[in-house]
Amino acid sequence: MNAPRYNAFNPIHKALRTLMFDTILKLQRSDLGNVEESLPAIAQVELLLKMMDGHAHHEDHFILHPIEEKAPAFIREFEGEHVTDLALGNQLREMIAAWRQAEDKRRAGSQLYYALNAFVAFNLQHMNKEELELNQLLWHHYTDGEILAMVEKLLQSVSPEEMKIATEWMIKGLNSVELEFMKNSMKETQVA
Length: 192
Description:
Four Helix Bundle (Hemerythrin (Met), subunit A), single chain, about 85% helix
């Protein structure tokens, strides 16, 4: 039996999924007609957009770009999905702006809620595709050590603020075995 291969997407995707699910819950539980009550949920939607934008940028540069010459058609398809993701994110930003300006905040809030759901639904499917299909491509062309080197370069480009937020959501989304691995990896990094 072969040992499981390194899934570079697992920790960040679990963090982002946890943030997405929590954001949907926070927004759907808010009375979007009440500005004061809604502001924390709106701020979390904006945080989600910021984290997803950063994730797509890092992924494009450090994961998709290196493998592009090995599978150009496949990578173009993924880049196309990132364009769709950006469009959905921009639509969500527009809904936030419309909610802020709206006289009928409940109606604008409903549109914002559905835009968030569309954004999350697309991203859940996209992340599954990355873990199920893109990982296969990475595993075919690279060793786990080479994939880990890509991830290490990616991590070096992440701002401390973004890393802090991602780590907080990883802690909320990882299982006990993954958390132990993360803790041990952090210890090893501090020693090195």
